[in-house]
Amino acid sequence: MPSEYPKDEPKSFKRIRLKLLLDKLPRAIFLNILVGGILLWIVRGKVEFFNMIVWYSLLLLSMIFRILVGFKVNKYKAATENILIWLIISTIFTGLVWGSSAWLIYPAHDFGRQMLLALVLLGISGGAVSNLYASWKTLAGFVLAMMIPLFLRVIVEGGALTVSVGMIIVLFTIVILNGAKWINNNLTENILWQSKFQLQKEQLQKKEQEITALFDNSSHYLLLLSPKGKLIRANRAALLGVGLPIDAQVNQYSIWEPPWWQQDEDSQKRIRINLAKVLNGKTVSSEIEIMGEQGDPEFHELILNPIYVDNQIKFLIMEGTNVTKFKESQLKLELSEKRFRSISEATGEYLWEIDANAIYQYVSEKSEQVKGYRKDELIGRKPVEFMPVDDAAKFEAVLHQTIINRTAFKLEHKSIRPDGKVLWEQMSGVPVYDEQDSIVGFRGASITITERKHHEDELIQAKEAAEAGTKAKSQFLAVMSHEIRTPMNGVIGMAELLTDTELTSQQKGYVDTIVSSSKALLDIINQILDLSKIEAGKIELEIQPFSISEVMSSISELMSTTARAKNLIFKTEMNKNVPELVLGDSARFRQIIINLVGNAIKFTKQGQITVSVSCLKLALQSAELEINVIDTGIGISKEQLAKIFGAFNQGDSGTTRRFGGTGLGLAVTRQLVELMGGRIDVSSEINKGSIFSINISFPIVIDPKTIDGIKKEDVSSAEVIENPLEEMPVSRHILLVEDNIVNQKVAQALLKKMGYQVSIADNGRIAVEMCQNQAYDFILMDCQMPEMDGYEATISIRAGTSINKKIPIIAMTANAMAGDREKCLAVGMNDYLTKPVNNSVLKACLQKFIL
Question: Please, are residues 348 and 327 in contact by the beta-carbon 8 Å criterion?
């Protein structure tokens, strides 16, 4: 067996051996039976007949045994080790039968027949070489099993001649075995090559089937051509694509002839040129346009490749792909991109794309117009290179956040043009993902917003200027209010003090005129301040429980006197379904009604003024009230109704001349109503009167002792005064801190009239010094004074160690703007009064702090 062949034979090789053995088995059986008969004929008459019958029976039995082994091989159809062993055993058994002939049918005294017997046996061995060469083991077993008995017989017989025959048998056996070995090796090698050839043939057939399947079932056009362009083979797609049956004889066509390419001569010429290029060893790719079966143009991409055999181009392979749909999609995409870019260019945007490192990969043409840089100057650089430092940091932060959130982003930033000018851009972008869903860049659009930013800056400047104007107006009003209130406090205070002295009727009339005029001037100041506070959004409502009926009673008591002075009837009407207690700002509510009633009295010559209060909707926790102020006055024209609530507006210019007034009352009234969440309307007819209607909702106080967790006794007693004022003991000592001499005299006179002892400090510094040496019951503190104002003086007193550290300090100041009260309380004052001070208000305020 060849050295390269493995010791463990593969099953395929064993199957070949079995097949050879089985193929020779019938002939071997026939020859054994035939030669056995010849051997019996040779020894006839020289041996016992019984021995001949026994020997031939053994020969037939060995043949039957070999037939049974053959049946077993056919049954299992496999070359297993057990089957091969049984074949060897059957062969050795046959050899022993032949070898036993030297004992059973050997002619003892007939040398000629002995030689014939030996030659027959040697012939049988030689025949075995040709019949049993498929297996070296079976051959060796057969020869040895046959020759050994024969050799022993010759040795037993003895004699020189017999010994010579024995030696011949040995030599002949060796020759037979060597020859059989050589034949077996050659046969084994042939079988091995036959097996390899069969395997390669099968693999080649499989590959050919695979290639044929790929070739015939490819969706592309595949054509095998000769070097001259003649068709050798075409796949199914190519045949059907040109309208030929799949069994068409393609070798009668050339590639440039119909039906393959039905086109003009120029295109056919191009194909010939491409064929020539391929014959020079090049791969050629081209795209041609042909007319399809429906008469529509089709686009085909052709790729020609050479196929080499023995380093020579023997064939050409052409691959054709119908790219019509792809071209149509590409054209649509190009058209869509062109349309999008046109729209983008029209809107002033430029398109851009950056990679994951924020480096420009693409910018559209518009970028040159916007940024001032050419496309090639931008690509390969980062957007931050064209931004100020702060904007660059903001851009990088936005990109970082976009990577985390994986969302679109929008950013406004500044960019610097080549000429150094700064422009504003608005950038909108989205992340770009790869097939693994990782962010590999960003794309988007940018537009210049420089003009918009300039406009916004102008608006901001205008807003700041308006706010500055408003602040200046508020400061002016605060100063003017303080400067007017200070002398007004002296005028009203002195006038009221005069009314308590002995005066003639004429003098009393003069004093009354001074008092009424001063109060009228004070009302004007208050209205201007209220309007200023409302417009500045600094007015705050003080929400406390109050009685609607009590407020209406106080209004009736106050306004009835004014109405009677003009011979007018004034009355109030309260519906029974109006709640007793509600939550709200009673002072502002009272101001609204008094403003409307005051206007009604002013513009009514005769008749009456009626104030009615009713409940439109009553719920568990709130009540919607309607208050009507009805007069029989001069009325308002339809033209003037639309602007009656405007500031400084009255019915007409003649109204101002005849009735006076600033026209601020209704403007303040409307804004107060709206501040309280209500609505005010008016209806009127000339010379028939007017009706002002207010709709406003108030929370209802179910339990007057508890209001949202705030006990009634915690509510400021300035709003809830249940007991009449009591006279103050004379022993109470008040320190009046005031720098204005007139106001000192007025306040001192009022306080002494109330029974208080008064000491005066001209400024805050003196007040602080006085508090170190003298105990006081109250301090009335002005706010604006030389050397040390009231705020600093209060802080010093509260922070010191004097006996007056915790006494009540009440601001009595001409500062009446929004926030002044809060400022006083913040520095440690206990309450706040505005000048000119009303006697009853001052008395009530002092009463609160008497233990």
Answer: no
Least confident of 257-261, 513-517, 707-711: 707-711
Distance CA(631)–CA(692), nearest Å, equals 9
Distance CA 830, CA 820 (A): 13
Q: Say whether 316 sits in a helix, a strand or coil.
A: strand
- Calculate mean pLDDT across residues 203-218: 77
Q: Say how many C-beta atoms besides its own lie within 10 A of residue 662's C-beta.
A: 16
Token reading at 225? 């051509």
Question: Cα separation of 34 and 37, whole Å?
Answer: 5
**How would residue 562 be classed by pLDDT, with cut points 50, 70 and 90?**
confident
Radius of gyration of the chain (CA): 65
E strand intervals along 762-841: 778-781, 809-813, 831-834
Chain mean position to CA 753:
78
Distances (CA, A) of 636 to 570, 642, 669, 689: 21, 10, 17, 8
Residue pair 736/760 in contact (Cβ under 8 Å)? The answer is yes
Question: What pTM does this model have?
Answer: 0.35
User: Is pLDDT larger for residue 296 or for residue 385?
Assistant: 385
Strand pairing partners for 850? none
CA distance 33 to 110: 24
Cβ-defined contacts of 21-30 (< 8 Å, 24+): 21/87, 21/132, 21/134, 21/135, 21/138, 22/70, 22/73, 22/74, 24/131, 24/132, 24/134, 25/66, 25/67, 25/70, 27/131, 28/66, 28/131, 28/132, 29/63, 29/66, 29/67
Q: What is the pLDDT of residues 54-97, one digit of tens each?
A: 988 988 898 888 778 777 766 655 555 566 677 777 778 888 88
CA pair distance 680, 645, nearest whole angstrom = 10
Q: For every residue of 338-364, which 3-state class applies, written as one string?
A: HHHHHHHHHCCEEEEEEECCCCEEEEC
**Rounded to an integer, what distance in angstroms lies between the CA atom of residue 519 and that of residue 499?**
15
Structural contact between residues 641 and 647, judged by C-beta atoms closer than 8 angstroms:
no
Check if the beta carbon of residue 256 is closer than 8 Å to that of residue 271: yes
Phi first, then psi: what are they for 200, rounded to 5°? -65, -35
Please, how many CA atoms are within 13 Å of residue 656, restricted to the half-sphere of its CB? 9
Distance in angstroms (rounded) separating the CA atoms of residues 303 and 317: 8
- CB atoms inside a 10 Å sphere around CB 15: 15
Q: What is the pLDDT of residues 388-446, one digit of tens each?
A: 999 999 999 999 999 999 889 999 899 998 988 888 988 989 999 988 888 989 988 88
Rounded Cα–Cα distance for residues 819 and 542 (Å): 14
- Is there a contact between 240 and 219 (Cβ–Cβ < 8 Å)? no
φ/ψ of 242, rounded to 5, equals -105, 10
Burial of 349 (0-12, 13-18, 19+ CB in 10 A): buried
Residue 243 CA to residue 259 CA, distance in Å, equals 8
- CA distances to 133, 165, 178, 434 from 126, in Å: 11, 17, 11, 80
